[in-house]
Specification:
The complex is a heterodimer of chains A (about 70) and B (about 725). By secondary structure, chain A is mainly alpha-helical. Chain A is about 60% helix and about 0% strand. The longest helix of chain A has 22 residues. With about 725 residues, chain B is mainly alpha-helical. Chain B is built from 28 helices and 4 strands. In chain B, the strands form 2 sheets. Chain B has a two-stranded antiparallel ribbon with strand order 1-4. In chain B, a hairpin with a 2-residue loop joins β2 and β3. The longest helix of chain B is centred in the C-terminal third of the chain and has 37 residues. Chain B is globular. The chains are: A mainly alpha (about 70), B mainly alpha (about 725).
Chain lengths: ~70, ~725
């Protein structure tokens, strides 16, 4: 039944390129991100992931005001 | 190392926090009214049948209030708090911060003052009229500018992952909002979507889906990456995972929009693309959820004591459930049952109440004691809030899941002889009554919890001592980078560029998905097999359509017969893309609390519609549809804008005949009279014989034809009839080719 709908697209020249292209772009990008992440240094990661906890000068620590 | 002294702006965070709570409670209350209308339709019809709170107007108010007022203010609250601390810098401009705050509240007030009055653009989750859309765009840029300048003037080397999420949120919401809001104003209170039919649907759901992704998800994930480690007092489980989570999520999300349009007239390949990417979405979504939950490894004992962590854990669990369910719902065989039913409502409330709601509550319970420098007023009350809210979610969602299943399957039931088991649509609605009541109770519990929290927070604030400008100090990286980097000189330029680079890559990543989806569909415009017999609406039908939009009929009625046997048997021929080419905006809808109307034209006579709109129960016993008495008021039909509407439509490409705008009003009145005559004929025939002679029929016709309902009837009678029209018979309004 869906052939009645998909006829809209078959009339565009080379429409098949769109899904193929999208898959290619995605795979490449994903591979790039994975490689990048794997190559990150451990020390660097530790430094960044501690940013939220790095508040020695916390003036609102409720422990101080108990 | 030179230490710079500065302060964090807590006041703006406090403002946003109060706005979050207050708008949250209001938005939820509006939702409760809408839910009650479905649970107790009789009561509302008899005692509270005001136009300003009728379901079709109130439901958009609920969705807009909860998304943009509750969650929106929640985003700003969390971002303004965490951004300053993650960057060791005060917000770049206090003026912009407070412009952001007051401007956003002004927009919300505009929404409250337009939607109940039927001033709407008729596109789901983007109902606000054109000038409010412009205000939103401006305010969003104010927020983005303030954030970006803060990032550029920061005192830390690296951008923590939360900030990536904030940046992606900013750029994507801007793109989505601007592209979806292209509309042509007719007057201050009325505009038409630039796109029509299939294109409008695709752009709308590209927006709608990604509003969920980039307004309800990515900013909250950013907040999760800040507040969960904060609360657990340990770094995020895997920073590597968070990077993959970020890129994969923003890349994949943008493609999944078409899964809202399965089995519709949207091209098949676009539907399949939407499904494929939806399935892929499980990976980054669950990666993020696990990353959040595993941050608590070795700290689970704290969850017992720390109420904020309790809220966060339930929020993450709900996020995991909703993001597993979403891809499942995008599978065509599941979607066949779930689409147009309450299953969708259950799904979004797991996300809305569970993920956004519980996360916001958690943040609030954490922020108030911090900013007011005092212990939470009552931990016990907060714990009670936690349990009552969790129970509320369960009581809300489970009945809605059952209702969705029940209705979805009832629609599909066939008797052995090939006829429908439930030919009357209404049977499938009245069967849901108990679930609607249970859902209302669930929602009520959730609101009670929120009110308890409000009390608790106010009490906390009263006892505490608010720190408006929190002093802080940090090395000034911009002045002496050498000392900080100990010999590494190359990074200085890189960090200044990085946020900009990050923004550009985000735009690129998001744009690829959007472009691949939307370009072909725009190309389709020239390729859609236009159906010759499909003609523009007459002036009266167009006015009727605007009334349909004003009353928010699309909130309960779809206009899309799917190519499925149980649909075509119930409603007739399935919908074709060529049938919607003049629909600015499209009105396909996403929920069927009432039956589909795509083939409504000619199914019932004018008198039936007239009586039905006046009091649905008189012709459809047990109906839960509200009555629309205001459409029957004297001289309610307003044709003063008709000419401009026709002109606007022509600008948008609708082929109206030259000069039709000048005769549009007369033509409309002529058509209205022909409908009014039939109605008056019926009304008179119902009178006792003696009185029939006394009635001045002509006078009565003149009265009826000026009622709005007549225009609405004209529109309803036009729906879906064009494909059977004789192609050669060109109606008066159409231009010759």
């Amino acid at each position: 039944m869906l052939r009645f709908i998909s006829h809209n697209l078959t009339s565009i020249d080379g429409v098949a390129i769109f899904p193929i292209l999208s898959l290619l772009i995605f795979t490449t990008f994903f591979a790039f991100v994975i490689t990048y992440v794997m190559r990150m240094r451990k020390a660097h990661i530790d430094e960044i992931s501690n940013i939220p906890l790095d508040d020695e000068d916390d003036h609102t620590d409720i422990m101080k005001f108990k | 190392m030179e230490l710079q002294k500065f302060s964090y702006d807590n006041k703006v965070v406090k403002y946003f926090a109060y706005a979050t709570v207050i708008w949250g409670i209001i938005g939820m209350l509006v939702g409760l009214i809408a839910a009650s209308q479905l649970a107790f339709p009789q009561f509302f019809n008899d005692y509270l049948g005001f136009r300003y709170i009728s379901f079709g107007r109130i439901r958009p108010l609920h969705t807009n209030a909860v998304i943009f007022a509750f969650v929106g203010n929640g985003i700003f609250m969390g971002v303004y708090y965490s951004l300053q601390r993650l960057l060791k810098a005060r917000m770049w401009s206090d003026k912009l911060s407070y412009l952001n705050f007051w401007g956003w509240q002004f927009i919300i007030v505009c929404a409250v003052l337009t939607l109940p009055f039927g001033i709407t653009s008729g596109k789901e989750y983007a109902e606000l009229e054109w000038w409010i859309d412009i205000l939103i765009a401006i305010l969003w840029v104010v927020f983005g500018l303030n954030m970006f300048m803060t990032i550029l003037n920061r005192r830390v080397k690296h951008l923590y992952v939360a900030i990536w999420f904030y940046i992606a949120t900013f750029v994507t919401v801007a793109i989505l909002h601007i592209f979806n809001s292209f509309e042509l104003p007719v007057s201050f209170f009325k505009s038409y979507s630039w796109y029509a039919g299939v294109q409008d649907a695709l752009v709308q759901w590209w927006y709608g889906h990604n509003a969920v992704a980039f307004f309800l998800t990515t900013p909250y994930l950013g907040l999760m990456y800040y507040f969960v480690p904060k609360a657990a007092n340990r770094p995020v489980y895997s920073y590597r995972l968070s990077i993959i989570h970020f890129w994969a999520l923003i890349f994949i999300y943008i493609w999944a929009g078409p899964h809202h349009l399965l089995y519709t007239s949207l091209p098949d390949w676009a539907q399949s693309l939407g499904v494929a990417f939806s399935i892929m979405l499980i990976a980054p979504s669950w990666g993020g959820m696990l990353n959040g939950l595993l941050t608590l490894r070795g700290a689970w004992d704290r969850v017992r004591d720390d109420v904020m962590l309790k809220f966060m854990v339930v929020a993450l669990t709900c996020y995991g459930m909703a993001t597993f369910e979403g891809p499942m719902l995008s599978l065509k065989n599941v979607n066949m049952i779930s689409h147009f039913t309450d299953w969708t409502i259950a799904h979004v409330h797991i996300g809305g109440l569970g993920w956004n709601g519980m996360m916001t509550f958690g943040m609030l319970y954490w922020l108030f004691p911090k900013m007011f420098r005092v212990k939470l007023y009552s931990k016990k009350l907060a714990n009670q809030h936690f349990w009552i809210a969790t129970l509320g979610i369960i009581l809300y969602a489970i009945p809605m899941y059952i209702a969705g299943f029940v209705q979805g399957l009832m629609w599909q039931d066939f008797k052995p002889d090939g006829t429908l088991e439930n030919p009357e649509f209404l049977e499938t609605v009245t069967a849901l009554a108990p679930y609607y009541i249970l859902r209302t109770i669930g929602g009520l519990l959730f609101i009670i919890g929120a009110v308890m929290m409000f009390y608790n927070l106010i009490k906390t604030a009263k006892q505490g001592n608010f720190l408006a400008n929190e002093p802080a100090e940090a090395p000034n990286l911009r002045i002496s980078p050498e000392k900080v980097t100990a010999g590494k000189h190359y990074w200085h330029r890189a960090i200044e560029k990085r946020p900009v680079r990050m923004m550009l890559i985000s735009i690129l990543v998001v744009a690829i998905g959007g472009l691949v989806e939307i370009i072909p569909t725009m190309v389709v415009k020239s390729n859609i097999k236009t159906i010759d017999s499909v003609q523009p609406y007459t002036a009266l039908e167009l006015e009727g359509r605007d009334i349909y939009i004003r009353e928010g009929c699309y909130n309960c009625h779809s206009q899309m017969v799917r190519p499925l046997r149980f649909e075509t048997t119930r409603y007739g021929e399935y919908s074709k893309s060529g049938e919607f080419v003049y629909d600015h905006p499209f009105q396909w809808g996403s929920k069927r609390t009432g039956p589909d109307l795509a083939r409504e034209g000619g199914k019932r006579d004018n008198v039936w519609h007239y009586r039905h709109m006046l009091d649905p129960k008189t012709v459809s016993q047990g109906s839960i549809m509200p009555a629309y008495p205001w459409m029957f008021e004297k001289n309610s039909l307003d044709l003063s804008l008709t000419k401009r509407k026709i002109e606007a439509m022509r600008t948008l490409g609708v082929p109206y005949k030259k000069g039709y705008e000048n005769i549009a009003k007369q033509e409309a009145l002529k058509q209205a009279e022909s409908i009014a005559e039939l109605i008056v004929e019926y009304q008179v025939s119902k009178l006792p014989k003696k009185e029939q002679a006394k009635v001045n029929k002509n006078l009565k016709v003149q009265e009826v034809k000026m009622q709005e309902v007549v225009a609405l009837i004209a529109y309803l009678q036009r729906l879906g009839v064009d494909i059977n029209r004789d192609e050669k018979a060109k109606p008066a309004q159409t231009a010759e080719k």
